[in-house]
Amino acid sequence: MCRTLNGNSGMTPEEKKKALEGIDRRDFMGFCATVAATLGLSSSFIPKIAEAVEGAAKKPSVIWLHFQECTGDSESFLCASYPSVEELILNVISVDYQETIMAASGIQAEDALKKAMTDNKGKYLVICEGAIPMGTPPGPGGKPGAYCQIGGKTAYDIAKEVTAGAAAVVCVGNCSSYGGVQAQRPNPTGAKGVGEALGIPTVNIPGCPHNVINSVATIVNYLLLGSLPKTDRHGRPLFAFGKRIHDHCPRRAHFDAGQFVEKFGDEGAKNNWCLYKMGCKGPQTYHNCSLVEYNDGTSWPIKAGHGCVGCSEPNFWDNMQPFYERLPNIHVPGVEATADKIGFTLVGAAAAGAAAHAAYTFVNRGKLDEDKKEGE
Ligand code: SF4
Ligand code: F3S
């Protein structure tokens, strides 16, 4: 028997009832409060979120596609233990197709996909995980996109067919958003993010992996308002990617005071000083990691003592390398310092600091883009 996660042919009514009973009311409201905070909504929205989640007459059908990736975003999604998240997620959305975790395989899985697409035409959400290879393998019989095929179809053809009837396409993780590690130079398979490969608009929730609270908040936003959240020019929801790591970093006071970790394990590291000199890319990375943290608010890279590598930025595998080297020294107009000394300069000069980083980002990104063009 073909069994999907929660579609019409999925959980039995008894199983659904049992799952719902497993959600403690206080935990559920706590979950709604977390989502409201992530979306930047006031606490007055908590009951509205609860109502939207509980009252949705028909849970949106979700088709989750896998392409070139490590399955880290599925792991991120499934391992989250927000209050009874398994049960909650299974009842907020109807995950009708997800190759990694569905029991069906082969023809049965293909049938589940076709049924979800037909039954919910124009209304289902597609979540994409992984990049799409556009290159052609060398040798006889090589066809475009053949580096990634499922059931004899290329990732490109599957994505094109499935997204054509979707209400919206949400990309989770850096690979589906922008190509990820597969697209790193020299990009042997011609990997691209889903939006770029297909030429369609997508909501991108990058990260390596993405933070599940951001995908859940995006879906709840859809349930609550019937629309997807506003995004920046890279397709990232502004509620999660509207601010730089550096602007909300708990180590920022040490940056401003010129107190830096010089070597892993030194006194500065023990005192949680700024990781800028250890290569932290927080000053040019947009993500809400410091505010929501990973693993249900347990930790995040900088809290764990490692600099940010910019995993939510397009082409971070190229643009943010070397990961363990500080941002290059540059002379900032109007500031008598190089980037290395900027922490000292910034004491009492926060406005100049913002200008300095903006100038740095502009100069450095321009150089990186130039480098990339040359390498292509
Ligand atoms: Fe935090 Fe990194 Fe900025 Fe230092 S450079 S304050 S560690 S984001
Ligand atoms: Fe990624 Fe930097 Fe956050 S490495 S997880 S964007 S702190």
The neighbouring-strand order within the major sheet is 2-1-3-7-9
Mean pLDDT: 80
Strand tally: 9
Using only CA atoms, what is the Rg? 22 Å
What would you call the shape? globular
Sheet with most strands: 5 strands, parallel
Characteristics:
376 residues; alpha/beta; five-stranded parallel sheet; two-stranded antiparallel ribbon; 17 helices; 9 strands; globular; disordered N terminus; binds iron/sulfur cluster; binds FE3-S4 cluster
Topology:
Layout: H1 13-21, H2 25-38, H3 46-55, E1 61-66, H4 72-79, H5 85-92, E2 94-98, H6 106-119, E3 125-129, E4 132-133, E5 149-150, E6 153-154, H7 155-164, E7 168-172, H8 173-178, E8 191-192, H9 194-198, E9 203-205, H10 212-225, H11 238-241, H12 252-256, H13 267-270, H14 289-292, H15 316-319, H16 342-345, H17 350-375
Parallel strand pairs: 1-2, 1-3, 3-7, 7-9
Antiparallel strand pairs: 4-8, 5-6
